[in-house]
UniProtKB/TrEMBL annotation, chain A:
It is found in: Cell membrane. GO terms for biological process: anaerobic respiration; formate oxidation; respiratory electron transport chain. GO terms for cellular component: formate dehydrogenase complex; plasma membrane. This is Formate dehydrogenase subunit gamma. It is a multi-pass membrane protein. The keyword Protease does not apply. Its main location: membrane. Pfam families: Ni_hydr_CYTB. Keywords: Cell membrane, Electron transport, Heme, Iron, Membrane, Metal-binding, Transmembrane, Transmembrane helix, Transport. The lineage of its organism: Bacteria, Pseudomonadati, Pseudomonadota, Gammaproteobacteria, Oceanospirillales. GO terms for molecular function: electron transfer activity; formate dehydrogenase (NAD+) activity; formate dehydrogenase (quinone) activity; metal ion binding. Its cofactor is heme.
From TrEMBL, chain B:
It is found in: Cell membrane. It comes from Modicisalibacter xianhensis. This is Formate dehydrogenase iron-sulfur subunit. One of its GO terms (biological process) is formate oxidation. Binds 4 [4Fe-4S] clusters per subunit. [4Fe-4S] cluster 2 binds at C51, C163, C166, C178. GO terms for cellular component: plasma membrane. InterPro entries: 4Fe4S_Fe-S-bd, 4Fe4S_Fe_S_CS, FDH_Electron_Transfer_Unit, Formate_DH_bsu_Proteobacteria, Formate_DH_C_sf, Formate_DH_Fe-S_su, Formate_DH_TM.
């Protein structure tokens, strides 16, 4: 087994992509915990994690601003590799095969699969909505200047959008636990070649092509035909 | 009226609380109501002063903008204001309608439904809706929840304030300060039943005086209120400083705090559980162990070793 954190693996996430991802991830989790505490009394005890109810109410919007800034940087970095392609649609149609670990039946995909791309686009949609509605209801700074109907609208939209984002986050975290090697990729940066070929074949071939231009290795073409029928 | 009406064992509704409040006391506490007879109000603002005095509130001295309303709106330090309205009736007669605006103490309080802090808003068995500021976190959800635009958040301590219906006075068997101070008997206080009787009598009187549309304002959309008005023109509450015709908790607040709140919370828990059981049933996608292509792999390794580039060039590290 080739380990990802070696020079032999393929660099999947640069140091900056990793750092950026984890700043967003940590602040997002803190936002979920503090936000849920203010959403349903069942989660009220989460206020204890932030030093009490009032500090929770105070810190939540500030974490939101930090997350939004870093999320913007992350969204720009991952923008190009997140366009949904034809093979992604096919991958989604075979979601049952994905969930049942019948990976051999799946079409080869690029650097990100359709699931990862959906997480990207859902978050790209959710974060600005959460930021804007959050600012509208932010006390003591902005909320007093807002008309009542807007406060009510914003607080409702904030809750529903957060719900969508939290469900997406749970799926995202689970996928990391489920697909072995992906957490290490995001923490340490590299994946094994076998991992890259298995999960992201098109991306793997692209990387290999860069490393070994086809002219230098005749077998490369034939091997690719076998891999992607 | 009994002195124990306001008591920690006589709380019938409590914000953000799943477990019920003490239940052993049963009946015995009569609901109270404050009756504001707009037709008898002379706009002297004695009630406003009495409110500030009893509750130890001192608002900033404002500026006169050419109307009697002062301050122009409720503030964290002004829990009631007189709203002066010049109304011209069908015959062209001018009427000066003065409404004392304060918390209506709804039977179904929107503030209490919206509040996320356990016990920060309570409703006593006698119907008074009170803010327990000790538990208030200053989020302002009560502002969004209230159909009457009553709560205000203080800049001083970032907590919500509104009329308490002098719950502390009522506790000791006294009427609210505004009632005590009213020189014309425009503000009355007593049991809900008595106040409705009185209001009906006043309505009849007004009808006899030619106010055919006189009536009681006790909006059903919020389950009735513990502050009720006698209005000369009950068919047009909006002429009394925009008193809402059919106030109810906004559908947007219901959509946020109604059944969807526990449903969404449950869905979050279910999503996490689904993940766990998927893992338990289907298992993880293990790291593939075989090298994909011996030739390519060897070639790649060779390339790596040959290039011997430092991490920074590939982007592993800064």
């Amino acid at each position: 087994m080739s380990h990802s954190n070696t020079k032999k693996g393929i660099l999947r996430y640069t140091w900056w992509a990793r750092t950026n991802h984890w700043v967003v991830a940590i602040s997002f989790v803190l936002l979920v915990l503090s936000g849920l505490a203010l959403f349903h009394p069942f989660f009220w005890s989460f206020t204890g994690l932030f030093g009490g109810p009032i500090p929770t109410r105070f810190i939540h919007p500030w974490i939101g601003v930090v997350m939004s800034l870093f999320f913007l940087l992350l969204a720009v970095q991952f923008f190009k590799e997140s366009f949904i392609k034809r093979h992604d649609i096919q991958w989604l149609k075979q979601i049952r095969d994905v969930l049942s670990n019948r990976d051999e039946k799946l079409p080869p995909v690029g650097k990100n699969n359709a699931g990862q791309k959906l997480v990207y686009w859902i978050m790209v949609a959710c974060v600005p909505v959460l930021l804007v509605t959050g600012i509208i209801i932010w006390r003591p700074y902005f909320a007093d200047a807002m008309p009542l109907w807007l406060l009510r609208f914003a607080v409702m939209v904030h809750a529903y959008t957060a719900f969508l984002a939290i469900i997406t986050l749970i799926i995202h975290i689970y996928s990391g636990i489920w697909v072995k090697g992906s957490i290490r990729a995001m923490v340490q940066g590299r994946v094994s070649k076998a991992w890259a070929k298995h999960h992201h074949n098109l991306w793997y071939e692209e990387v290999m092509k860069e490393r070994n231009p086809p002219s230098a290795d005749k077998d490369d073409d034939s091997s690719r035909q076998q891999q992607s029928p | 009226m009994r002195g124990d009406q306001i008591n920690l064992q006589n709380i019938v509704a409590r914000s953000a609380s799943n477990a019920p409040s003490p239940q052993i006391r049963d009946g015995g506490v009569e609901e109270v109501t404050k009756l504001i007879d707009v037709s008898r109000c002379i706009g002297c603002k004695a009630c406003q002063v009495a409110c500030s005095e009893w509750n130890d509130l001192r608002d900033e001295v404002g500026e006169c903008v050419g109307v009697y309303d002062n301050p122009l709106d409720l503030t964290p330090n002004t829990w009631e204001v007189m709203r002066f309205n010049e109304y011209e009736d069908e015959q062209g007669n001018l009427e000066w309608l003065i409404r004392k605006d304060n918390c209506m103490h709804c039977e179904e309080p929107g503030c209490l439904e919206a509040c996320p802090a356990p016990g920060a808003i309570v409703k006593y068995a006698n119907g008074i809706v009170d803010f327990n500021s000790e538990h208030c976190i200053g989020c302002g959800y009560c502002v969004a929840g209230c159909p009457f635009d009553i709560p205000r958040i203080s800049e001083k301590d970032e907590k919500a304030y509104k009329c308490t219906l002098c719950s502390d006075r009522v506790f000791h068997g006294l009427e609210p300060a505004c009632v005590k101070s009213c020189p014309t008997g425009s503000i009355m206080f007593g049991t809900r039943e008595d106040m409705h009787e009185l209001a009906a009598a006043r309505t009849d009187f007004l009808k006899g005086r030619g106010y055919e549309k006189a009536g009681i304002y006790d909006p059903a959309g919020v389950g009735g209120t513990h502050v009720i008005y006698v209005l000369q023109h009950a068919d047009k509450p909006e002429i009394y400083g925009n008193l809402p015709e059919d106030p109810r908790i906004s559908p947007m607040v219901d959509a946020w705090k109604g059944v969807t709140k526990p449903l969404m919370s449950a869905a979050v828990g279910l999503a996490a559980l689904t993940g766990f059981f998927h893992y338990a049933i289907k298992g993880p996608k293990e790291e593939p162990e075989d090298d994909p292509d011996e030739r390519t792999a060897t070639a790649a390794v060779r390339t790596d070793e040959e290039s011997a580039s430092p991490d920074s060039q590939e982007g592993d590290r800064p």
